[in-house]
Amino acid sequence: MSVIRSVVTGTGSYLPEKILTNSDLEKTVDTSDEWIIERTGIKRRHIAAEDEVTSDLAVKAATRALESARMDAVDIDLIVVATSTADQTFPSTATTVQRKLGITKGAAFDVQAVCSGFVYALTTADNFIKAGQAKNVLVIGAEIFSRILDWEDRTTCVLFGDGAGAVVLTAQEGSGENTDQGMLASRIHSDGRYNELLYVDGGVSSTGTIGHLRMKGREVFRHAVVNLASVVGEVFRHAVVNLASVVGEVLEDCDMTSSDVDWIVPHQANKRILDGTARKLKVDPEKVVVTVQDHANTSAASIPLALDVAVKDGRIGKGDILILEAMGGGFTWGACLLRW
Ligand code: UT7
Questions:
Q1: In the chain, what are the helix, strand and coil shares in percent, each to the nearest 5?
Q2: Contact 15, 295 (CB under 8 A)
Q3: Which residue in 27, 57, 188, 297 has its CB near the most CB atoms, within 10 A?
């Protein structure tokens, strides 16, 4: 049976020029390079220039993704930007990106799921493609978290950074089997009861201010490992069911487990969360793409940033099975399974 698949045809990323190291932070808050590396794996983060806004970062990543897809901006018929740090309250950052890229057709909108934003955006874009409503989608994660941090709170300000990553997702015909290239399964979840564990204490309709990020790190950590392991497991099961129903083979013949995975490209929050999730899934840590040391937690931008690194350095190759997974404020969490 012929189906429409969403295939990643290009990747790109951008990190602002200015680098803030752990030693730089030692001068402003009571912390140490040793504590930050031991607890998080983070060594440095990038900080946007004063005159840079989130759409600037997004456009730079998107332009690189278009180049790698050998596509022009005019080929794009949908832009989905995952961000929690929009340029303006409205219009969406996606429409600003659209204007800056010189695109005047199609649609553009933002998705807000904090650190899970990219998985939510990719899932949304995949659904548009599968429904036949878009052919070439720019999916972007872009954040300037440095502007919502309390720079006097050592428990949060050392953890985050700015950046952007993007992919071009293109509609291609597939056979409906899990041997197809492209997105094979995705699952997203949320549970609003955990708002107070990770949030920003400001907003348009509440305080009328932008606010600062607040987090109960230890509890978030615990939820992250449990939720991520379970959602990734769920995506595996979903992929197996798709394959079984489409090709009519028995489950045993086409079983997909974590041993089938070539690469996990996780949201980069904390090296210990990445290790913990890999352990729970019984995945070799060597198969986990880790870039958190170079840019800290860039929220919705971290998965496409890590993906771009591993694609450009040649680790990820055609036919590889990838899992992208993330967990963030809300709580929100989700995972996508795709064949490169
Ligand atoms: O993207 C999704 C959202 N975020 C996350 O996924 C982050 C999840 N959480 C984490 O990554 C970790 O919980 C943290 C990195 C935030 C903290 O690591 P932890 O091992 O859970 O440390 P902790 O919160 O239990 O704090 C241990 C100690 C505390 O001191 P006391 O109470 O034991 O005296 C903190 O006050 O470390 C102290 N501390 C620091 N010390 C030096 C907290 N922040 C710092 C700091 N430098 N920057």
A1: 40, 25, 35
A2: yes
A3: 57
Looking at residue 283, what is its pLDDT? 83
Q: Which of 270, 277, 331 to mutate to test the pocket of ligand 1 (most atoms within 8 A of CB)?
A: 270
Write phi, then psi, for 146 (nearest 5 degrees): -60, -20
- In sequence order, the 6+-apart residues with CB closer than 8 A to the CB of 286 are none
198: which strand partners? Answer: 215
Q: Which of 118, 145, 174 is the last residue of a domain?
A: 174
Regarding whether 222 and 294 lie in a shared domain, the answer is yes
Cβ pair 305, 268 in contact under 8 A = yes
The overall pTM is greater than 0.85: yes
Question: In the prediction, which pLDDT does 227 show?
Answer: 77
pLDDT at 172: 98
Count of the separate structural domains present in the chain: 2
216 Cα–ligand 1 center, Å: 8
Per-residue model confidence as pLDDT tens digits over 248-279: 333 233 346 778 889 999 999 999 988 888 88
Question: Does 303 contact ligand 1 (Cβ within 6 A)?
Answer: no
With a 6 Å cutoff on the Cβ, whether 115 touches ligand 1 is yes
